[in-house]
Design brief:
By secondary structure, the chain is mostly helical. It has a domain of 340 residues. Helix content is 30%, strand content 4%. A hairpin with an 8-residue loop joins strand 4 and strand 5. Helix 2 crosses helix 5, helix 5 packs across helix 15 and helix 6 runs antiparallel to helix 13. It is globular.
């Protein structure tokens, strides 16, 4: 197993709940070390910062509060025309599939550096299946084949069978906690319902296959999910050029998925590991894509993602039953209108600005600090991550000049006044935090408000190589067990594709 060598040993106070992986912040010294975290760029030195300048950068990256939101009948300049809003939460769901720490609080106290109980980083949906029907039967129906679903939800006429995630029956005044393979998938209403849809997709697969073999149904669900990750999510967020640089170009000019991938930087020596450059920097790009407000369906008003003053999409609770998500508002299907309440909501742009609600996360999600940008910057520093410039040089990618590493929104109105990172502190000269650098790299594509943005050559290559590498290192993935696999014909769209929208369309039938 790849050892987590060289991780920083900076004894600082932990920074909270969400996304905190036990053992990740220190170089493991435990005799139980299993070593599932490591580095892609092992020889690069750690970037040199301090908490004060990172605090200042985080404040500059957090947008000001907007008392009024752009109406759905008008164009919002912060929206990304290249990525719809559903991919933000599909990315969160995938992250929870790759990293999870099931260890008890007692074991944490006994052995705080141990990594032995981390689940292997695979696209295997352990956040859905948990440890299986034999070990966690409360996640399953009595037949041991179908997943247990939650209460019925209303509000989306196109999905009369809508269900939420299963929950316990609490004592009065206690929260109705979700019964899930990964509790983080109840963090907000959107990812919670995405989890519920994956449960329903499994049930749909069982029924379509007409099988009594749980493992066969599970295998098919995993392979269809892996197909979506490789053929839909990844090209959407890193772009087809980066995908072609990994797989090569097909005769029709597309991505040649039949080729064995060319991985230049993610090279496990023994077995798959999770690079800290990915987990603590590159894959946090989705935080900049979070919208402040979302429409769930046609029957209720839009809701803030987090709010300290009123109703919001904050999770870890039983939410109103008329909040059934209409996924057609999150993933493109057919020819939806460009504006209005029936449009597909775009994600926000991957730039160096995070919406204001992420500057004050609810206590159920994170504490000390509650500013998401500061949490990310501090975590990267504590990991001893190299600077973005040093990673770019190691990848033979032209380094972005400090003057072009701007802090702020990628809009025509904001771009002229966005400050350089060195205006925040001269210590950032040639020394940008890797997470910030990757967001700024994506922002370099900006020309005008409707320019579609995705990850650039550094961020895209890191995310792309890790995703592809994990799939090819997994002996149970479809690319290893059945390279000619294709999704079930009855699941395909009219154009013969199988994307996340098609998976959700099948889930609606369960």
């Amino acid at each position: 197993m790849q050892q987590a060598t060289g991780l920083a040993t900076i004894p600082r106070k932990p920074i909270g709940r969400h996304g905190e992986l036990r053992g990740l912040e220190t170089h493991g010294r435990s005799d139980q070390l299993d070593g599932r975290f490591g580095r892609m760029f092992r020889t690069l030195p750690a970037a040199d910062f301090n908490a004060d300048i990172l605090h200042a950068l985080a404040a500059a990256m957090t947008a000001e509060f907007e008392a009024t939101q752009t109406p759905e009948t008008e164009v919002d300049d912060e929206e990304n025309t290249g990525i719809s809003a559903g991919y933000t939460y599909l990315g969160q769901f995938i992250d929870h599939d790759l990293t999870f720490d099931p260890a008890s609080s007692l074991q944490r106290q006994d052995d705080p550096n141990a990594l032995v109980d981390f689940r292997t980083p695979r696209f295997d949906l352990d956040n859905v299946y948990g440890r299986g029907p034999d070990d966690q039967p409360y996640l399953y129906r009595g037949d041991g084949l179908h997943m247990l679903l939650g209460d019925a939800l209303t509000g989306n006429p196109d999905d009369p069978k809508a269900r939420g995630v299963p929950r316990n029956t609490p004592e009065p005044g206690e929260p109705a906690r979700a019964l899930l393979g990964d509790p983080r998938n109840d963090e907000n209403v959107i990812v919670s319902q995405l989890q519920a849809s994956m449960l329903r997709f499994h049930n749909r697969m069982v029924d379509v296959l007409a099988t009594s073999d749980f493992e066969e149904a599970q295998r098919q669900v995993r392979w269809h999910y892996q197909w979506v990750v490789l053929h839909d999510f990844l090209p959407t967020v890193i772009g087809t050029d980066t995908m072609r640089s990994i797989f090569g170009t097909a005769k029709d000019g597309g991505i040649d998925f039949a080729n064995h991938p060319k991985l230049l930087f993610y090279k496990p020596k023994q077995s798959a590991f999770m690079p800290v450059e990915f987990s603590a920097a590159a894959y946090r790009f989705g935080h900049s894509m979070v919208r402040p407000i979302y429409r769930l369906n046609q029957t209720i008003d839009r809701l803030m993602i987090f709010s300290n003053t009123g109703e919001s999409l904050v999770g870890f609770r039983k939410f109103p039953t008329n909040w059934a998500i209409d996924w057609n508002l999150f993933f493109k299907t057919g020819n939806p209108p460009a504006l209005g309440p029936k449009r597909v909501q775009p994600a926000y742009k991957p730039d160096t600005s995070l919406v204001n609600p992420l500057g004050s996360l609810p206590a159920s999600v994170a504490v000390n600090p509650s500013v998401l940008a500061e949490r990310n910057l501090l975590r990267g520093w504590r990991m001893g991550l190299p600077s973005g410039q040093s990673v770019a040089r190691a990848m033979s990618v032209p380094v972005i000049p400090d003057s072009k590493l701007k802090v702020g929104k990628a809009t025509e109105a904001d771009t002229p006044d966005n400050k350089s990172i060195t205006d925040i502190s001269p210590r950032f000269a040639g020394n940008a935090p890797l997470w910030f650098y990757i967001l700024s790299e994506a922002q370099q594509q900006f020309l005008k408000n409707d320019t579609p943005l995705h990850l650039g050559p550094v961020g895209g290559r890191i995310v792309g190589e890790v995703f592809v590498g994990l799939l090819y290192e997994d002996s149970h993935s479809y690319v290893r067990q059945n390279p000619t696999f294709t999704p079930l014909k009855e699941f395909l769209s009219e154009s013969g594709e199988f994307k996340m929208a098609d998976l959700l369309r099948q889930a609606r039938q369960a």
